[in-house]
# Entry
Amino acid sequence: MSTQPRALAASFLKDLLKHRKKLDSLSQNADFLNLDSRDRRLVVELVYGVLRNLRLLDHYLGKLSRTPLKKLDESVLWVLRLALYEIEFLRIPDHAAVHEAVGLCRKIGKTSAAGFVNAVLRSFLRESPTLPEGRSARALAVRFSHPEWLVKRYLARYGVDQTEQLLRRNNEPPIPTLWVNIFKTDLQSLCRQLEEEQISYQVYPQLPNCITVRSAGFTQNRAYREGLCFFMDVASQEVAYLTEVKNHRMLADLCCAPGGKAFLLASQKGKDAKMSCCDFSLPRLMEARKRAKFLQVPGLNFINADLRLTPPFRQPFDFVLVDVPCSGLGTLRSNPDIRWKIREKDLSRFHSTQVALLQNGFSVLRRGGVLTYSTCSTEPEENESVIEEFLAEEPRAFLAGDFHRTFPESHPGDCFFAARIRHEGS
Ligand SMILES: C[S@@+](CC[C@H](N)C(=O)[O-])C[C@H]1O[C@@H](n2cnc3c(N)ncnc32)[C@H](O)[C@@H]1O
# Structure
Protein backbone atom coordinates (compact mmCIF):
# COMPACT_ATOMS: atom_id res chain seq x y z
CA MET A 1 0.00 0.00 0.00
CA SER A 2 1.30 3.42 -0.79
CA THR A 3 0.06 6.95 -0.18
CA GLN A 4 1.78 8.39 -3.25
CA PRO A 5 -0.68 7.19 -5.94
CA ARG A 6 -3.65 8.26 -3.78
CA ALA A 7 -2.17 11.71 -3.21
CA LEU A 8 -1.66 12.10 -6.94
CA ALA A 9 -5.18 10.84 -7.76
CA ALA A 10 -6.74 13.25 -5.23
CA SER A 11 -4.87 16.33 -6.44
CA PHE A 12 -5.40 15.41 -10.12
CA LEU A 13 -9.14 14.96 -9.61
CA LYS A 14 -9.40 18.24 -7.74
CA ASP A 15 -7.65 20.16 -10.54
CA LEU A 16 -9.51 18.27 -13.26
CA LEU A 17 -12.92 19.49 -12.19
CA LYS A 18 -11.97 22.81 -10.62
CA HIS A 19 -9.71 24.06 -13.41
CA ARG A 20 -11.36 22.01 -16.17
CA LYS A 21 -8.14 20.20 -17.01
CA LYS A 22 -8.24 17.45 -19.60
CA LEU A 23 -8.52 13.88 -18.39
CA ASP A 24 -5.96 12.64 -20.89
CA SER A 25 -3.39 15.06 -19.40
CA LEU A 26 -2.90 12.39 -16.70
CA SER A 27 -0.70 10.36 -19.04
CA GLN A 28 1.71 13.32 -19.40
CA ASN A 29 1.74 14.24 -15.68
CA ALA A 30 5.37 14.14 -14.45
CA ASP A 31 4.45 12.64 -11.03
CA PHE A 32 2.37 9.99 -12.77
CA LEU A 33 5.22 9.08 -15.11
CA ASN A 34 7.56 8.73 -12.13
CA LEU A 35 5.41 5.98 -10.58
CA ASP A 36 6.01 2.30 -11.22
CA SER A 37 3.50 0.54 -13.46
CA ARG A 38 1.51 -0.96 -10.55
CA ASP A 39 0.98 2.43 -8.92
CA ARG A 40 0.13 3.98 -12.28
CA ARG A 41 -2.60 1.37 -12.76
CA LEU A 42 -3.94 2.24 -9.30
CA VAL A 43 -4.03 5.97 -10.11
CA VAL A 44 -5.91 5.30 -13.36
CA GLU A 45 -8.35 3.01 -11.56
CA LEU A 46 -8.96 5.60 -8.84
CA VAL A 47 -9.32 8.58 -11.17
CA TYR A 48 -11.68 6.87 -13.64
CA GLY A 49 -13.53 4.93 -10.95
CA VAL A 50 -14.20 7.97 -8.77
CA LEU A 51 -15.36 10.00 -11.79
CA ARG A 52 -17.73 7.21 -12.84
CA ASN A 53 -19.20 7.03 -9.34
CA LEU A 54 -18.92 10.57 -8.05
CA ARG A 55 -22.58 11.25 -7.39
CA LEU A 56 -23.04 7.90 -5.66
CA LEU A 57 -20.03 8.51 -3.43
CA ASP A 58 -21.29 11.99 -2.57
CA HIS A 59 -24.70 10.57 -1.75
CA TYR A 60 -23.10 8.27 0.83
CA LEU A 61 -20.86 11.00 2.19
CA GLY A 62 -23.79 13.42 2.44
CA LYS A 63 -25.55 10.94 4.71
CA LEU A 64 -22.52 10.39 6.92
CA SER A 65 -20.95 13.82 7.31
CA ARG A 66 -22.61 16.32 9.66
CA THR A 67 -20.90 19.14 7.76
CA PRO A 68 -22.50 19.70 4.33
CA LEU A 69 -20.12 18.52 1.60
CA LYS A 70 -19.99 22.00 0.06
CA LYS A 71 -18.48 23.32 3.28
CA LEU A 72 -15.80 20.64 3.58
CA ASP A 73 -12.21 21.42 2.66
CA GLU A 74 -11.97 20.36 -0.99
CA SER A 75 -8.83 18.25 -0.57
CA VAL A 76 -10.36 16.42 2.39
CA LEU A 77 -13.50 15.74 0.36
CA TRP A 78 -11.39 14.14 -2.39
CA VAL A 79 -9.59 11.99 0.19
CA LEU A 80 -12.98 10.77 1.42
CA ARG A 81 -14.26 10.07 -2.09
CA LEU A 82 -11.16 8.06 -2.97
CA ALA A 83 -11.28 6.00 0.22
CA LEU A 84 -14.98 5.31 -0.15
CA TYR A 85 -14.43 4.23 -3.75
CA GLU A 86 -11.73 1.82 -2.60
CA ILE A 87 -13.97 0.38 0.10
CA GLU A 88 -17.03 0.03 -2.13
CA PHE A 89 -15.51 -0.99 -5.46
CA LEU A 90 -11.94 -2.29 -5.06
CA ARG A 91 -10.59 -5.39 -3.43
CA ILE A 92 -8.60 -3.39 -0.93
CA PRO A 93 -9.24 -4.44 2.69
CA ASP A 94 -11.49 -1.90 4.46
CA HIS A 95 -9.07 -1.22 7.30
CA ALA A 96 -6.23 -0.60 4.81
CA ALA A 97 -8.34 1.92 2.84
CA VAL A 98 -9.22 3.79 6.07
CA HIS A 99 -5.59 3.70 7.21
CA GLU A 100 -4.42 5.08 3.85
CA ALA A 101 -6.99 7.88 3.91
CA VAL A 102 -5.91 8.98 7.39
CA GLY A 103 -2.26 8.87 6.28
CA LEU A 104 -3.15 10.85 3.16
CA CYS A 105 -4.69 13.64 5.28
CA ARG A 106 -1.33 14.00 7.03
CA LYS A 107 0.63 13.85 3.80
CA ILE A 108 -1.33 16.69 2.21
CA GLY A 109 -1.08 18.90 5.32
CA LYS A 110 -4.65 18.27 6.57
CA THR A 111 -3.68 16.51 9.80
CA SER A 112 -6.53 18.16 11.68
CA ALA A 113 -9.06 16.42 9.38
CA ALA A 114 -7.64 12.92 10.00
CA GLY A 115 -10.03 12.18 12.90
CA PHE A 116 -13.04 13.35 10.89
CA VAL A 117 -12.05 11.24 7.87
CA ASN A 118 -11.52 8.22 10.09
CA ALA A 119 -14.94 8.72 11.74
CA VAL A 120 -16.84 9.16 8.45
CA LEU A 121 -15.27 6.07 6.87
CA ARG A 122 -15.85 3.94 9.94
CA SER A 123 -19.48 4.98 10.13
CA PHE A 124 -19.84 4.00 6.45
CA LEU A 125 -18.49 0.54 7.28
CA ARG A 126 -20.86 0.28 10.26
CA GLU A 127 -24.03 1.75 8.80
CA SER A 128 -23.97 1.00 5.02
CA PRO A 129 -26.25 3.91 4.05
CA THR A 130 -29.11 3.16 1.69
CA LEU A 131 -29.57 4.27 -1.90
CA PRO A 132 -32.72 5.85 -3.36
CA GLU A 133 -34.91 3.14 -4.86
CA GLY A 134 -37.14 3.24 -7.92
CA ARG A 135 -36.64 4.60 -11.39
CA SER A 136 -37.17 8.32 -10.95
CA ALA A 137 -34.60 10.63 -12.57
CA ARG A 138 -33.11 11.41 -9.17
CA ALA A 139 -32.89 7.78 -8.06
CA LEU A 140 -31.24 6.74 -11.34
CA ALA A 141 -28.94 9.79 -11.28
CA VAL A 142 -27.66 8.80 -7.82
CA ARG A 143 -27.39 5.06 -8.41
CA PHE A 144 -25.68 5.44 -11.81
CA SER A 145 -23.84 8.67 -10.96
CA HIS A 146 -25.03 10.95 -13.73
CA PRO A 147 -26.24 14.54 -13.59
CA GLU A 148 -29.99 14.61 -13.11
CA TRP A 149 -30.61 16.90 -16.10
CA LEU A 150 -29.02 14.32 -18.39
CA VAL A 151 -31.01 11.43 -16.92
CA LYS A 152 -34.22 13.43 -17.39
CA ARG A 153 -33.34 13.87 -21.06
CA TYR A 154 -32.57 10.17 -21.49
CA LEU A 155 -35.85 9.20 -19.80
CA ALA A 156 -37.88 11.54 -21.99
CA ARG A 157 -36.25 10.21 -25.18
CA TYR A 158 -35.57 6.55 -24.55
CA GLY A 159 -37.90 5.46 -21.73
CA VAL A 160 -36.80 3.71 -18.55
CA ASP A 161 -35.35 0.43 -19.86
CA GLN A 162 -33.11 1.96 -22.53
CA THR A 163 -32.11 4.72 -20.13
CA GLU A 164 -30.90 2.18 -17.59
CA GLN A 165 -29.05 0.33 -20.31
CA LEU A 166 -27.32 3.53 -21.42
CA LEU A 167 -26.48 4.61 -17.86
CA ARG A 168 -25.01 1.19 -17.13
CA ARG A 169 -23.01 1.25 -20.36
CA ASN A 170 -21.70 4.76 -19.66
CA ASN A 171 -20.11 3.40 -16.48
CA GLU A 172 -18.36 0.46 -18.13
CA PRO A 173 -14.78 0.79 -19.33
CA PRO A 174 -14.65 1.04 -23.14
CA ILE A 175 -13.64 -1.96 -25.25
CA PRO A 176 -10.12 -1.16 -26.49
CA THR A 177 -10.51 -1.04 -30.26
CA LEU A 178 -7.75 -0.63 -32.81
CA TRP A 179 -7.56 0.38 -36.42
CA VAL A 180 -4.91 -1.65 -38.23
CA ASN A 181 -2.68 0.83 -40.00
CA ILE A 182 -2.71 -0.49 -43.55
CA PHE A 183 -0.05 2.05 -44.56
CA LYS A 184 2.45 0.01 -42.53
CA THR A 185 0.97 -3.49 -42.27
CA ASP A 186 -2.23 -5.45 -42.97
CA LEU A 187 -4.85 -7.17 -40.87
CA GLN A 188 -3.45 -10.68 -41.33
CA SER A 189 0.13 -9.72 -40.49
CA LEU A 190 -0.89 -7.81 -37.39
CA CYS A 191 -3.09 -10.68 -36.17
CA ARG A 192 -0.19 -13.07 -36.70
CA GLN A 193 2.10 -10.80 -34.72
CA LEU A 194 -0.39 -10.58 -31.85
CA GLU A 195 -0.79 -14.37 -31.82
CA GLU A 196 2.98 -14.81 -31.62
CA GLU A 197 2.99 -12.48 -28.62
CA GLN A 198 -0.01 -14.30 -27.11
CA ILE A 199 -2.11 -11.15 -27.06
CA SER A 200 -5.77 -11.99 -27.23
CA TYR A 201 -7.71 -10.07 -29.86
CA GLN A 202 -10.91 -10.27 -31.85
CA VAL A 203 -11.48 -9.12 -35.39
CA TYR A 204 -14.53 -6.83 -35.70
CA PRO A 205 -15.96 -8.22 -38.93
CA GLN A 206 -18.38 -5.37 -39.72
CA LEU A 207 -15.52 -2.98 -40.50
CA PRO A 208 -12.29 -3.44 -42.44
CA ASN A 209 -9.07 -3.42 -40.39
CA CYS A 210 -10.75 -3.18 -37.00
CA ILE A 211 -9.85 -5.37 -34.03
CA THR A 212 -10.40 -5.32 -30.28
CA VAL A 213 -7.68 -6.29 -27.83
CA ARG A 214 -7.89 -7.49 -24.25
CA SER A 215 -4.46 -6.71 -22.98
CA ALA A 216 -3.59 -4.31 -20.19
CA GLY A 217 -0.84 -1.89 -21.16
CA PHE A 218 -1.17 -2.45 -24.93
CA THR A 219 0.43 0.97 -25.49
CA GLN A 220 3.73 -0.69 -24.51
CA ASN A 221 3.30 -3.33 -27.19
CA ARG A 222 5.74 -3.29 -30.12
CA ALA A 223 3.02 -3.17 -32.78
CA TYR A 224 1.48 -0.15 -31.09
CA ARG A 225 4.77 1.64 -30.55
CA GLU A 226 5.76 1.04 -34.18
CA GLY A 227 2.49 2.59 -35.40
CA LEU A 228 1.09 -0.63 -36.89
CA CYS A 229 -2.24 0.22 -35.26
CA PHE A 230 -3.86 2.91 -33.15
CA PHE A 231 -6.79 3.17 -30.77
CA MET A 232 -10.07 4.38 -32.23
CA ASP A 233 -13.56 3.55 -31.07
CA VAL A 234 -15.55 1.39 -33.46
CA ALA A 235 -18.32 4.02 -33.76
CA SER A 236 -15.76 6.65 -34.70
CA GLN A 237 -14.22 4.33 -37.32
CA GLU A 238 -17.66 3.69 -38.78
CA VAL A 239 -18.20 7.40 -39.55
CA ALA A 240 -15.21 7.34 -41.91
CA TYR A 241 -16.85 4.58 -43.99
CA LEU A 242 -20.33 6.09 -44.33
CA THR A 243 -19.59 7.55 -47.76
CA GLU A 244 -17.71 5.65 -50.44
CA VAL A 245 -14.88 8.02 -51.36
CA LYS A 246 -12.72 5.87 -53.63
CA ASN A 247 -13.78 7.72 -56.79
CA HIS A 248 -13.61 11.22 -55.33
CA ARG A 249 -10.67 13.38 -56.40
CA MET A 250 -10.94 16.24 -53.92
CA LEU A 251 -11.61 15.47 -50.27
CA ALA A 252 -11.57 17.59 -47.12
CA ASP A 253 -11.72 16.89 -43.41
CA LEU A 254 -12.49 20.32 -41.98
CA CYS A 255 -12.16 19.51 -38.24
CA CYS A 256 -9.43 16.92 -38.56
CA ALA A 257 -7.38 16.77 -35.36
CA PRO A 258 -6.14 14.44 -33.94
CA GLY A 259 -6.60 12.78 -37.31
CA GLY A 260 -8.25 9.37 -36.84
CA LYS A 261 -11.03 9.77 -39.41
CA ALA A 262 -8.73 11.55 -41.87
CA PHE A 263 -6.35 8.56 -41.78
CA LEU A 264 -9.18 6.12 -42.41
CA LEU A 265 -10.47 8.25 -45.28
CA ALA A 266 -6.94 8.39 -46.71
CA SER A 267 -6.89 4.58 -46.68
CA GLN A 268 -9.98 4.51 -48.94
CA LYS A 269 -9.29 7.34 -51.36
CA GLY A 270 -7.80 6.88 -54.82
CA LYS A 271 -4.04 7.32 -55.25
CA ASP A 272 -4.27 10.64 -57.08
CA ALA A 273 -7.02 12.12 -54.91
CA LYS A 274 -6.10 15.17 -52.86
CA MET A 275 -7.17 15.55 -49.29
CA SER A 276 -7.11 18.76 -47.22
CA CYS A 277 -7.11 18.46 -43.45
CA CYS A 278 -8.07 21.58 -41.47
CA ASP A 279 -8.24 22.41 -37.82
CA PHE A 280 -8.44 25.69 -36.05
CA SER A 281 -6.21 24.60 -33.16
CA LEU A 282 -2.61 24.87 -34.33
CA PRO A 283 -1.17 22.54 -31.62
CA ARG A 284 -3.81 19.90 -32.41
CA LEU A 285 -3.19 20.27 -36.15
CA MET A 286 0.58 19.87 -35.62
CA GLU A 287 -0.11 16.77 -33.56
CA ALA A 288 -2.29 15.35 -36.36
CA ARG A 289 0.46 16.08 -38.87
CA LYS A 290 3.07 14.41 -36.65
CA ARG A 291 0.85 11.36 -36.29
CA ALA A 292 0.28 11.21 -40.07
CA LYS A 293 4.05 11.23 -40.60
CA PHE A 294 4.65 8.55 -37.97
CA LEU A 295 1.84 6.38 -39.34
CA GLN A 296 3.08 7.01 -42.92
CA VAL A 297 -0.30 8.25 -44.16
CA PRO A 298 0.38 9.72 -47.59
CA GLY A 299 -1.21 12.60 -49.48
CA LEU A 300 -2.64 14.79 -46.71
CA ASN A 301 -2.35 18.55 -46.83
CA PHE A 302 -2.65 20.15 -43.37
CA ILE A 303 -4.12 23.65 -43.07
CA ASN A 304 -4.65 25.76 -39.97
CA ALA A 305 -8.04 27.45 -40.47
CA ASP A 306 -11.08 28.54 -38.51
CA LEU A 307 -14.09 27.08 -40.23
CA ARG A 308 -16.40 29.65 -38.64
CA LEU A 309 -14.83 32.08 -41.12
CA THR A 310 -14.88 31.79 -44.90
CA PRO A 311 -12.95 28.58 -45.71
CA PRO A 312 -9.62 29.18 -47.47
CA PHE A 313 -10.21 27.06 -50.59
CA ARG A 314 -10.50 27.94 -54.27
CA GLN A 315 -11.57 24.58 -55.69
CA PRO A 316 -14.72 22.85 -54.44
CA PHE A 317 -14.60 19.37 -52.91
CA ASP A 318 -16.30 16.12 -53.92
CA PHE A 319 -16.45 15.00 -50.31
CA VAL A 320 -16.30 16.95 -47.05
CA LEU A 321 -16.22 15.61 -43.51
CA VAL A 322 -17.34 18.02 -40.78
CA ASP A 323 -16.66 16.14 -37.54
CA VAL A 324 -17.63 19.06 -35.35
CA PRO A 325 -16.49 20.01 -31.84
CA CYS A 326 -19.24 18.80 -29.50
CA SER A 327 -20.09 18.05 -25.88
CA GLY A 328 -18.70 14.50 -26.16
CA LEU A 329 -21.68 13.20 -24.19
CA GLY A 330 -21.65 10.07 -26.36
CA THR A 331 -18.23 9.08 -25.05
CA LEU A 332 -18.87 8.88 -21.29
CA ARG A 333 -17.20 5.46 -21.03
CA SER A 334 -13.80 6.83 -22.01
CA ASN A 335 -14.42 10.36 -20.73
CA PRO A 336 -16.33 9.99 -17.46
CA ASP A 337 -15.42 13.56 -16.44
CA ILE A 338 -17.52 15.08 -19.24
CA ARG A 339 -20.79 14.46 -17.39
CA TRP A 340 -19.55 16.73 -14.56
CA LYS A 341 -18.09 19.42 -16.85
CA ILE A 342 -20.85 19.95 -19.42
CA ARG A 343 -23.92 21.88 -18.34
CA GLU A 344 -27.24 21.66 -20.08
CA LYS A 345 -26.99 25.28 -21.16
CA ASP A 346 -23.71 24.53 -23.00
CA LEU A 347 -25.66 22.59 -25.61
CA SER A 348 -27.08 25.71 -27.25
CA ARG A 349 -23.57 27.19 -27.53
CA PHE A 350 -22.35 24.02 -29.25
CA HIS A 351 -25.42 24.11 -31.48
CA SER A 352 -24.74 27.55 -32.92
CA THR A 353 -21.07 26.75 -33.62
CA GLN A 354 -22.06 23.45 -35.22
CA VAL A 355 -24.61 25.11 -37.53
CA ALA A 356 -21.99 27.67 -38.62
CA LEU A 357 -19.38 24.94 -39.29
CA LEU A 358 -21.88 22.89 -41.27
CA GLN A 359 -22.88 25.92 -43.37
CA ASN A 360 -19.27 26.75 -44.16
CA GLY A 361 -18.46 23.10 -44.81
CA PHE A 362 -21.30 22.90 -47.31
CA SER A 363 -20.14 26.10 -49.00
CA VAL A 364 -16.97 24.33 -50.24
CA LEU A 365 -18.83 21.28 -51.58
CA ARG A 366 -19.28 20.97 -55.35
CA ARG A 367 -22.65 20.32 -56.89
CA GLY A 368 -23.30 16.56 -56.62
CA GLY A 369 -20.78 16.28 -53.78
CA VAL A 370 -21.49 14.69 -50.39
CA LEU A 371 -20.82 16.00 -46.90
CA THR A 372 -20.76 13.91 -43.72
CA TYR A 373 -21.66 15.77 -40.53
CA SER A 374 -20.82 13.92 -37.31
CA THR A 375 -20.70 14.25 -33.53
CA CYS A 376 -19.97 12.00 -30.58
CA SER A 377 -22.99 13.32 -28.72
CA THR A 378 -26.36 11.83 -27.83
CA GLU A 379 -28.10 15.20 -27.60
CA PRO A 380 -30.53 16.43 -30.31
CA GLU A 381 -29.33 20.07 -30.11
CA GLU A 382 -25.99 18.88 -31.52
CA ASN A 383 -27.44 16.33 -33.91
CA GLU A 384 -30.87 16.27 -35.55
CA SER A 385 -31.70 19.90 -34.82
CA VAL A 386 -28.42 21.15 -36.38
CA ILE A 387 -29.26 19.27 -39.56
CA GLU A 388 -32.90 20.37 -39.55
CA GLU A 389 -32.01 24.03 -39.03
CA PHE A 390 -29.39 23.86 -41.78
CA LEU A 391 -31.66 22.10 -44.29
CA ALA A 392 -34.45 24.59 -43.66
CA GLU A 393 -32.16 27.43 -44.74
CA GLU A 394 -30.20 25.77 -47.55
CA PRO A 395 -32.40 24.83 -50.51
CA ARG A 396 -29.49 23.16 -52.37
CA ALA A 397 -28.90 20.64 -49.57
CA PHE A 398 -30.66 17.27 -49.28
CA LEU A 399 -30.38 14.54 -46.71
CA ALA A 400 -28.87 11.37 -48.21
CA GLY A 401 -30.30 8.38 -46.35
CA ASP A 402 -31.35 8.18 -42.70
CA PHE A 403 -29.59 9.67 -39.73
CA HIS A 404 -26.85 7.36 -38.52
CA ARG A 405 -26.88 6.73 -34.76
CA THR A 406 -25.00 4.23 -32.65
CA PHE A 407 -26.63 3.19 -29.39
CA PRO A 408 -25.70 0.51 -26.81
CA GLU A 409 -28.74 -1.65 -27.58
CA SER A 410 -27.33 -2.64 -30.94
CA HIS A 411 -23.76 -1.38 -31.01
CA PRO A 412 -20.55 -2.00 -29.05
CA GLY A 413 -19.13 1.49 -29.60
CA ASP A 414 -19.65 5.01 -28.32
CA CYS A 415 -22.82 6.96 -29.13
CA PHE A 416 -22.12 8.73 -32.40
CA PHE A 417 -24.43 10.63 -34.70
CA ALA A 418 -23.90 11.28 -38.40
CA ALA A 419 -25.87 12.66 -41.31
CA ARG A 420 -24.97 12.66 -45.00
CA ILE A 421 -25.92 15.69 -47.02
CA ARG A 422 -25.86 15.94 -50.79
CA HIS A 423 -25.35 19.16 -52.75
CA GLU A 424 -27.99 19.22 -55.45
CA GLY A 425 -28.01 22.85 -56.33
CA SER A 426 -26.74 24.79 -59.30
C1 LIG B 1 -14.32 16.05 -32.72
S1 LIG B 1 -12.81 16.78 -32.99
C2 LIG B 1 -12.34 16.08 -34.53
C3 LIG B 1 -11.82 14.68 -34.44
C4 LIG B 1 -11.18 14.20 -35.72
N1 LIG B 1 -12.07 14.31 -36.85
C5 LIG B 1 -10.71 12.76 -35.61
O1 LIG B 1 -11.39 11.84 -36.07
O2 LIG B 1 -9.64 12.55 -35.04
C6 LIG B 1 -13.24 18.38 -33.44
C7 LIG B 1 -12.07 19.24 -33.90
O3 LIG B 1 -12.62 20.46 -34.37
C8 LIG B 1 -11.67 21.48 -34.15
N2 LIG B 1 -12.37 22.76 -34.24
C9 LIG B 1 -13.09 23.39 -33.28
N3 LIG B 1 -13.57 24.56 -33.74
C10 LIG B 1 -13.15 24.68 -35.03
C11 LIG B 1 -13.29 25.67 -36.03
N4 LIG B 1 -13.98 26.78 -35.78
N5 LIG B 1 -12.71 25.47 -37.22
C12 LIG B 1 -12.00 24.35 -37.47
N6 LIG B 1 -11.82 23.37 -36.57
C13 LIG B 1 -12.38 23.53 -35.35
C14 LIG B 1 -11.11 21.13 -32.78
O4 LIG B 1 -9.84 21.74 -32.61
C15 LIG B 1 -11.07 19.61 -32.82
O5 LIG B 1 -9.80 19.18 -33.20
